[in-house]
Amino acid sequence: QVQFVESGGGWVQPGGSLRLSCAVSGIIFSNYHMGWYRQAPGKQRELVAGITLGGGTTYADSVKGRFTISRDNAKNTVYLQMNSLKPEDTAVYYCNRKIGALSWGQGTQVTVSS
User: Fold this and answer.
1) CA-closest candidate to residue 53, choices 29, 75, 69, 77
2) pLDDT digits 0-9 by tens, 38-91
3) CB-based burial of residue 55 (10 Å sphere; 0-12 exposed, 13-18 middle, 19+ buried)?
4) Coil, strand, or helix at residue 112?
């Protein structure tokens, strides 16, 4: 049974940083492109960053230059380093396969405010 366990969220002031982690089990992690998604109140879930099997990365325009996605196949974990955070980054953050999302984890709340 696939499981995504996100952690590392919290409250941070504008301009601050957070590093999110997602531990993945139940699938052969190294076989899949992975993504970080977010869902803000009243909005649809959106893909903010993706990483391929080989480590190639893509980002939504809204986070490009501020967020960095990475993966550790030995630990079955995907990370999201978030810098220069803005209030509009406030959302629940989730990880999942980039293509063909499976059942969602609980996510981790990120709140950016002064």
Assistant:
1) 29
2) 999 999 999 999 999 999 999 999 999 999 999 999 999 999 999 999 999 999
3) exposed
4) strand
